[in-house]
Amino acid sequence: GSRPARIPATERGLPARPARHRAVPARQPAPAWGASLESLEYLSSKWEYPHHSRHGWARDCVARGEELMNLLLDRGASARDVIAPIQHDDGDNATSNGLPPQPLGTVLGRAVSRASYKLVSRLLDEGADVHARQQFICNVSGAGFGGCEIFAFDVTALHLGSFYWNAEGIRALLDYRRSSSNVHDLERENEQNSADLLTCRDSSGRLPLHWASAGPGPHDEYLLPEDTIVPHIVSTFQLLVAGNPRTINDLDHQGATPLYYAVGSHAACGSIHSDLAIRFLCAHGADARLPDIHGRTVLHVLALRSIDGEPIPPALLDLLVEHGADVTHADEDGNTALYLMARHLRQVEAARHLVRLGADVSARNAQGNTPLHGAMGGEIRSRQNHKGETEDVTLAAKIRAHDGMMAAILEGEAGGGGSSGLMELQNLVGKTPRQLRDETLTRWRRQEESRRRPPARRGRGRGRG
Fold first, then answer.
1. What pLDDT, in 10s, does the model give residues 433-461?
2. 352/236 Cα distance (integer angstroms)
3. Domains of the chain by start residue, with CATH
């Protein structure tokens, strides 16, 4: 067999520690080492580094990961390697469509998250399958579709490169796909109905453009140097949309468009750059009026996911309305965007702006609740902002936000100033906004008293006898 290469220790691409080395066999399964490029979020949570040096740390990780992958390939590791799926004891290992289970990862799929054009091209030239499908699991906080764990099948390298905004990797995939010299690829095209990489769908019907719109979350952006963030995002969308402009309003199995996911990601993290995707999609024909299968529009998802986000700028609401969003539209439960926004007391100015754009303050949902019911039972809680700083919320700040949301909604009353009696309207269980307001204030005050109360001291007690 091949002699192992001796290289500086890199534990999944981490900066080397000079006192320790390890041998890496040439036949080391390459997907595991490709994770050195994919797993910066995980690695950064396990290793401490000064805040000011995070960009250098991330750049060093990627450079070492590339160096390691090239070394393994030089020593005979296969670009076609995969991580085999878990085999179940009951023998039921087929996917829902009856096909054999897909790999948990491929060399190309792991590497394309951050690999250079040169490395992606090398993997393809050495036999990596540009059309290969795999499973993908990601539970990084704030990332992706709905802010929860991503678990998908039929994921291609282009989905993953798009998710991580790796424009270099995407360009390499598309250039390879277009190259007439790739005889193997042309033969494959005749065998597959979905050979066009840009229109390949994952198990939830999502295109690479959906994945780019969802994005990897604020942590990835935090690790990128400021002057590279905009080119990463813009170049990714330019490549995907220019390659197939018709995908701009494509729906997945949930009826969600790329714009829907871009808006949801912006609402969740509030990053200073996360509206780039929204603006790009709108400028290229995204339709903000399209509802998902539950009747929710981009305004609904913006409201739903903004509970811990930054305050939503009115200009973003204006942009979405200009591109078709209807502020009066209700979802299948009768909820308007204003009702959902009103429950999140950090979003007072956004709610006020929706009212000024024509949102109906008296609209009732299936439970008979108006936006004022939502506001009076609303919440504002401590959170971590996009800078990583914890923002605590005092009782006084909660009350101030509560009163501010009430005033913002009452601006939309027919007579103004509370004259239409919105505070006294009962929902289906007989509760008025005024009653909900009193209940919320009582709950907050009790929570504050409990927080301030010193912990009970345990007495020494006396023994019996």
1. 999 999 999 999 999 999 888 876 665 55
2. 34
3. 1-85+98-248 (1.25.40.20), 288-452 (1.25.40.20)
Q: Residue 258: what residue type?
A: P
What are the residues whose beta carbons fall under 8 Å from the beta carbon of 37, sequence distance 6 or more?
13, 62, 65, 66, 69, 110, 111, 113, 114, 115
Sign of CA pseudo-dihedral 256, 257, 258, 261: negative
Output the six-digit token pair for 208: 């690479």
Band of pLDDT at residue 408, cut at 50, 70 and 90: very high
Q: What are the tens digits of pLDDT across the range 300-319?
A: 999 999 888 889 999 999 99
CA separation for the pair 14, 36 (Å, rounded): 8
The mean pLDDT of 332-351, rounded to a whole number, is 98
Q: What residues does 8 pair with on adjacent strands?
A: 21
Residue type, 292: D
